[in-house]
Amino acid sequence: MKSSLLFLALAASHANATNSDLVRSIDSIRAQGCDGRDGVTPALRHDPLLDRVAEAQASGSNLKAAMKEAGYRAVQAAVLEASGSAAARKRALADEGCKDITNPIYRDVGVALDNGTAWIVLAAPLIPPSAQGTGDVSRRVLELVNDARSRSRRCGWKRFSAAPALLLSEGLQRAAAVQARDMADRSVLGHAGIDGSSPAERATRAGYAWRTIGENIASGQATPEQVVEGWVKSPHHCANLMSADFTEMGVAFAADPKSAGGIYWAQVFGAPSPGSKD
To answer: What does the pLDDT read at residue 11?
Structure first.
């Protein structure tokens, strides 16, 4: 029994050393650059959770399912595969995996070796904004939205002219916060509240006397830049964002690590009824 335990300990130690060597090779490529691409910093962080994902990839598992099973939340991820000797694997990764290895969005790495084949998972972790920075987040989203509205663009089949800049509304901020929190609590992405309420009803409850109301929602984006980019690329969300019918907006996010999306966003657009005050 002692010999068996010793063998297992030595095998685990060898596997850990091999994995560490593989991570160092990847970081060397990342730092030096490859295929005409400049090197990037910082070095990748070796995450044991991603080792589990890489092992699952070696077994043919679906990436999304493996990420969920391991408990790792990613904004973006990539899987690389290389076979042969250590030197051959490094050459293959530099030749075929350069674009991903030198992508600065990736911060974490996990690896697995199976019969001479290396499986590498690169990931950008989902790190929600600080709850203390909600005001800064709202102002940044507003800035990005107004920048998008400043130029004409096509949203799906429809072209929109440039539209006037929006203002932040406290009432619409409150309405957005209610829906973002509700979605995170229920792990559901949708426009209906837990009580069946609509965006217009929530705006009214928040004290906003409106002439017209619209709402965009999203989940999984870690930054204002990512969430606005997603809305601009989606025809329906883009149409709301570009509509000249709206003069004000509110935006909020809510994070819950146990939820399906990790972070949920609600953006409420409106135009106040004549003579109303927010």
So the answer is: 40
Secondary-structure percent of the chain, ordered helix, strand, coil, rounded to 5: 45, 25, 30
Token representation of residue 4: 């068996």
3-state secondary structure of 273: coil
Q: Can you name the residues that pair with 45 across neighbouring β-strands?
A: 108
| Rounded average pLDDT over 249-267 | 91
Query: φ, ψ for residue 165 (rounded to 5)?
Result: -65, 145
Q: What whole-number distance in Å separates Cα of residue 221 and Cα of residue 25?
A: 30
Phi, psi of 148 (to 5 degrees): -65, -40
CB 168 within 8 A of CB 142: yes
Do 210 and 204 touch, CB atoms closer than 8 A?
yes
For 228, phi then psi, to 5°, come to -70, -40
The beta strands (E) that lie in the chain are given as: 45-46, 74-83, 108-114, 117-125, 153-155, 158-160, 167-168, 210-219, 248-255, 263-272
Specify which residues 65 forms β-bridges with.
none
The pTM (predicted TM-score) of the whole model is 0.73
Residue 35 — very low, low, confident or very high, per pLDDT cuts 50/70/90? confident
Q: What is the mean pLDDT of residues 24-43?
A: 92
For strands 74-83 and 117-125, give the pairing. Answer: antiparallel
Per-residue confidence band for 201, with pLDDT thresholds at 50, 70 and 90: very high
Contact 250, 174 (CB under 8 A): yes
Overall size of the chain counted in residues: 278
- Distance between CA atoms of residues 84 and 92, nearest Å: 9
pLDDT on residue 66: 93
